[in-house]
Amino acid sequence: MAKFFYTFLAILMAIIIMCAPPIFAQEGEVIESVKIVGNKRIDESTILYYIKSKPGTVLSKLQIRKDIEQIFSLGQFKDIQVDTQNRLDGLELQFLVEEIPSIGDVEILGNSKIETNDIREKIGLRRGATFNEHLVKESKKEILKAYEEKGYFFAETRIDTKKNPDNLVDVVIRIREGKKVKIEKIRFSGNKAFKDKNLADVMETKARTWFSFIDDSGVYQKDILKLDMFRIEGFYQDNGYLRVKVLEPRIDINKKAHQIHIIIPVEEGPQFRIKSLEIKGDDTISHDEIIKNLLTKKGDIYNVSQLRQDIITVGDLFSAKGFAYADVNPITKIDDNARVVDLSIDVDKGKKVYVGNINMLGNIKTRDNVIRREFRLKEGEVFDGSKLKRSKQRINNLNYFEDVKIDTQRGENPELVDILTTVTEKPTGSFTVGAGFSSVENLIFTTSIAQNNLFGNGHRVNLTASLSSIRTNFNLNITEPRLFDSEISAGIDAFNQRQNLLSFNKKTSGAGLRFGKNITEYESLSLGYRFENVEVTGVAAANVTDIFKNETRTTSRLSPTYVYDTRDNFLNPSKGWRHMVGFQIAGLGGAKFTRSYYEITYYRPLLGKLVGAGHARINFAEGYGGETLPSFERYFMGGPTSLRGFTIQNIGPKDSNGNPVGGSKALLLNIEAQYPFTKSLRGFLFYDRGNVYGSGQDLSTTAKNFDLTEMRNSIGAGIRFISPFGPLGFAYGIKLDRNSGESTGEFHFSAGSAF
């Protein structure tokens, strides 16, 4: 705009000059000198460079007009006059110029909600720039727009200018931010198929709520609202309303109340169903097989998003057969009168391709082979899209990278596809110190020294310590996830742990070995051995029994475990299953007992970003060889990793004094609704149900059978944060079946995975 203005001004001045009869010396005289008069910022040599009237040339009106046009083209002058002076040494040609002022100091006052530097980046009023009124107007507009995006819809700004003797214009921007304006209500008109709430849930723009101060809901942003119109249309189209129109919203502003009401008109149109569905083209995969895998079915309400997913599914089916570049196109025939759609999916599989080169990019520390060994594809084999997806998932699960991208591109010939893996490394070594609070443990201190990718080879070393009023734990773990680049993992553990339970105190020290192997893509077997020394103290004389007594014992146990795990992410899953079956047998030395368990976890997306999580665990334990189950191997429940809202390890059978004595069986159920605020921070609501089963007064008797009617229940909420040394959680649980003398609920702090 400014360039156009200056060009127009140059042309106008040229016309004026051409039409006006300038008073020049006699045309044809020789110019002895050329002088620029009136310039302050623009160097004389710069101006002289652009004019052709120079000393020694003949005075020409035509050339002078061209010179004026050249000077105007610099965009730095608002007026140019020409004069001649007869000096003793000859004719002097003078160009009398008036510069357009430049911007001097720019001061911004009154802003607190937007940083000064952020405002400076948005406006064109910068020191040294050419000043013009258009720039002032545009800067004012950009400032107000920035405040609107922050919810300060009624912000005001005034821009004052003052010209100083140096032909500089000093600028003072005064801002009156006002109060933040919130959207009070969002309403719709013309909608019959869906309620206002259904449509509002689709939008990113939200009316304010009581927790708006947390999620900043209720802020009006014009661009976001525009996108919401498309979201509403998409929602209708996903419910069969193919002719829907979402019209321009009406914005009602109440300046006095600082409120905005939004009314969105909708023209729904008719709802359409799928009349017929067929697959056309290649029959490498049977049409029945393809249709079986589709979400879209004959007779269903037409769903645009569902169809898009089906197109991806069909492409994936052919990609798994080596046809990486299969072309899948939906063809629709809409009958408006019958309100039905004939749908056909046309497939052109193309040529079968093979894996060419697999290249790595971005891994500075991590060795190529550490990434390459996670690939489910090998160079030279038939391309399989499903294996490529799984490869990316496995690389992500290494937890060495902030981001992992896998791209495919055609190789040296059409039958090859090259794979480029681009990673962004994140720090894998950490030294952390943290603190938390629990209503039982009071202050909890944690510290960790960890390296999860030692020397870039994937070796993991972790030294952790946690201290509270009831426990002191020190743990050292060393893991080689791929022994000699094989599918076998190996690890060494050393530990020293102290725990003060309600009925007794326990101190455990020892070491262990771990070995594991993947037997299929999602299944693994592991075998662990652990030797430990356990010291039990603090058992009151009145509570001493054959099981509960002050003693020191050793245990030597083997622990085989089977795991089936399809979770999409180990630290922050959103879908998938995890099954674990474990068994422990102790008796190679010291105490003789067995422990076994089955654990199942399930994640699935619910609505939007919301994730549902379910977990259940069942435990059995018993002594053998004439021995009873030791006190320190009995099951206890309550606390942040089991039944939240209850005191740590206080659920289950009690002795005559009301102290928990644990049991030989346990049953636990956890249900969560998780919402990811960020990549590493999740909030959650939970329901917990569980109990420990065993004898109470007579500890030598066989434990009771499971009784589903005797289970404790709690609800609550919390947050979970993925820290550099693992997940950390804070939660508050409320007892639903509080007994006399029990607290209403409890705060919990936890380190480690949720389940």
Tell me what the structure shows:
There is one protein chain. The chain is α+β, with helices and mostly antiparallel strands. It folds into six domains: 2-99, membrane protein fhac (Ubiquitin-like (UB roll)); 102-176, Ubiquitin-like (UB roll) (Roll), CATH 3.10.20; 182-267, Ubiquitin-like (UB roll); 273-348, Roll (Ubiquitin-like (UB roll)); 354-425, Roll (Ubiquitin-like (UB roll)), CATH 3.10.20.310; 429-751, Porin, CATH 2.40.160. Helix content is 17%, strand content 43%. The chain has twelve helices and 32 strands. The strands form six sheets. A 16-stranded antiparallel sheet has the order 17-18-19-20-21-22-23-24-25-26-27-28-29-30-31-32, with no helix packed on it. Strands 7, 8, 9 and 10 form a four-stranded mixed sheet that branches. Strands 1-3-2 form a three-stranded mixed sheet, covered by helices on one side. A hairpin with a 5-residue loop joins β15 and β16.
Record the SSE blueprint.
Blueprint: H1 2-19, E1 31-37, H2 44-50, H3 61-72, E2 77-87, E3 90-99, E4 102-109, H4 116-122, H5 133-149, E5 156-163, E6 168-176, E7 182-189, H6 196-202, H7 212-215, H8 222-237, E8 245-246, E9 250-254, E10 259-267, E11 273-281, H9 287-293, H10 304-319, E12 327-335, E13 340-348, E14 354-361, H11 368-372, H12 385-397, E15 401-410, E16 416-425, E17 429-438, E18 442-454, E19 459-467, E20 471-480, E21 488-500, E22 505-518, E23 523-537, E24 551-565, E25 576-590, E26 593-605, E27 611-623, E28 665-676, E29 681-693, E30 712-723, E31 726-735, E32 745-751
Parallel strand pairs: 1-3, 4-6, 7-10, 11-13, 14-16
Antiparallel strand pairs: 2-3, 5-6, 8-10, 9-10, 12-13, 15-16, 17-18, 18-19, 19-20, 20-21, 21-22, 22-23, 23-24, 24-25, 25-26, 26-27, 27-28, 28-29, 29-30, 30-31, 31-32
